[in-house]
Design brief:
The protein is of the alpha/beta class and about 230 residues long. The protein is about 45% helix and about 20% strand. It contains ten helices and eleven strands.
Length: about 230
């Protein structure tokens, strides 16, 4: 939306709401007219789909999404087939289980990835191979089913913004995977292993930034690179 100088002044909005200005030549108005571009944020939250075959846990995830500010439940399905039938329109993040009636493990992640939305695994699977394979197939994070609603909401918003969410369980798996490699095959840097170690101990990304005297953006950049290396 373009508004005049006087409208900008009367609106009393933050300067961040106005992203630029330019001069226009308007019919019937002498001289150039300066117009400001006003950004009006949408009330619609992050579109979320849930693919989970356990009825009670699926209902719990639905309640978490519906009660979390900034999240908008688009669909909930008990299988990949049902999710495909309902469609992925408006879905930005899919919360998926790794064990469904018509798919398991990395296969589930790859299937959802082919439909477009960002993938966040929420699964009871706690074996290293399944979790690491899911990340390798394109999941942007992993959460155990014991995670709180607050953590699920935080993880969803993180991956929706293009970031990686690494739970303590996933951090421990990634560390062990890297340590099992030979020194020549190891892919993680010293700093990346340090960050994963702190995550495995339950530290948040903000706490890690404070402990390591680096910015939160740097921590998240390391996490993104760790994901890409899997």
């Amino acid at each position: 939306m373009l508004v005049a100088d006087v409208a900008k002044t009367l609106a009393r909005k933050s300067a961040n709401d106005f992203v630029g200005n330019r001069e226009l030549e308007l019919k019937g108005i002498p001289g150039p007219f300066r117009a400001w571009e006003l950004v009006i944020p949408s009330d619609q939250g992050i579109g979320v789909a849930i693919v989970e075959d356990h009825p009670l846990y699926r209902q719990g995830l639905m309640q978490t999404v519906e009660s979390s500010a900034g999240l908008d439940l688009i669909a909930a399905a008990d299988s990949l087939r049902e999710m495909d039938a309902s469609g992925y329109g408006g879905v930005q993040v899919a919360l998926v289980d790794l064990h469904l009636p018509d798919g398991a493990g990395a296969e589930v992640v790859a299937h959802v990835k082919s439909r477009g939305p960002t993938r966040l695994v929420v699964s009871a699977s706690d074996d290293r191979e399944s979790v690491v394979d899911a990340i390798g197939a394109g999941a942007s994070g992993h959460l155990p089913k014991s995670s709180t609603g607050e953590e699920i909401a935080t993880a969803t918003k993180t991956v929706a913004g293009g970031g990686t969410y690494v739970s303590p369980v996933l951090a421990a798996f990634l560390l062990r995977t890297d340590r099992d490699r030979t020194s020549e095959d190891a892919v993680l840097t010293k700093r990346e292993r340090e960050i994963l170690s702190l995550l495995a101990e339950g530290e948040t990304d903000f706490e890690i930034a404070d402990r390591l005297f680096i910015s939160i953006r740097t921590v998240r950049s390391h996490l993104d690179r760790i994901r890409d290396k899997r």
